[in-house]
Amino acid sequence: MVHQILAVPLLLKIVLSLFVILGANRLTGRLWAAVLAGIAVFALWTPRSPSELLTAFRMRVSSADDFFFIAILFLVVWMSAQMSAAGTMKRIVTAAEALLPRRSALAAVPMLIGFLPMPGGALFSAPLVEALDRENALDANLKARINYWFRHIWEYWWPLYPGALLAAEIFRLPPWLFMAIQIPLSLLAIGSGWFFLLRRVPPAAALGRRDELRRAARDAALQGIAPIAVLTLVYALVSFLLPSFAQISKYLPMVCGVVAAMAYLQARQALPAAAWKKILFSRAPRASPSPSGSCASTAPWPNSPSPTGPSPCASCRGNSPPGASPSSPSSWCFPSSPG
Fold first, then answer.
1. Is 201 left (phi over 0), alpha (psi -120 to 50) or beta?
2. Does this model's pTM top 0.70?
3. Domains of the chain: which residue ranges?
C-alpha cells in the first residue's frame, strides 16, 4: 500500500500538494503556513531520506538563481507600488483616453498595467477602465471582463510574472527562448479578446482632437511607458553585453533592469522617505473608499483628479451577480449601465 502511494506520478504529487496549499490557506488564512504544509506533504511523498531532503534544501538556499528569483519577486511588487505612488498609471490612462478610440483605449489601459504584476492589480485597473466609459453606456460585466482579460494577456511569457519565471526554470529554458515560444499565446489572447469582447463596444473617437491636447497626451504616454522601456532595455543590454552577469544567475539581468527602472522613476519624481517606508514594508495594497462613498472613477482628462482604488461599496455589491464575492471579476466596482 505504501509503495503504491509513493509510486504516484510526480505531476499528480505536485498537483495534490498545490491543493493542500489551497485548502490549508482557506482553513488558516495564513499563506506562509499553507505553503509550509504543501512543502511538507510533497517532501514526505517523495522517496527521499531526511538527510537527502536536508541536502536538497541547503543546495536551494545557497543557490544564486533562487536568491535572485526571490529578489525579483520583491522588486516587482515594490516597483508596482512606486509607479502607483508616482502617478505613472494615471498618466497612462489619461493619455490612452485622449489618443485612442474607445475600443482600443479600453484594451490598452489594462494591457499596459498588466506589464507590472501586482497584488490586486485588476482591482487597481478597474476604476481606470471605468473612467474611459464617460457616458456609463457599457454593461458593467462587459467592462469587468475587458479589464480582467486584457490585464492578463502577458502572463504567458512576460518575465516579470513569477509563473513565467518558474515555468522557464522547470523546463530549463533561458528566459529569451521561453519568451519566444510563448509570445504567440499573447497574440491569440489579444485576437480572442477583440472578437469576443471589444466588438461589443460601440466605436467612439479619441478625445484629444486639439493639437495641444494630443501633444500633452503623448508626453503623458511617454512618461508612463518610460519605466517599462528602461527595464526592458537594461535587461537586454546586460544580457547581451555582460554575459558574465547571466553566468552568476540567469535572473541577475532582470534584477538590474528592475532596479534601473526604479532608479529612473525616483530620479523623475522623487518619493519621500515616508512613501518608501510604506512601499517597502506594507503587507498589501488597500483600496481607499472615495469621499462620497460611491464607486471610484476619474473625471474627464486633462483636469481630472487622481483616480483612487475601487472600494467594495454598497452600490458595487448591489450590481454583483448572486453569489459573487468582492474579489471576483464581475463585482469590481463598475456601476450598472443605464437601463
1. beta
2. no
3. 2-60, 66-331
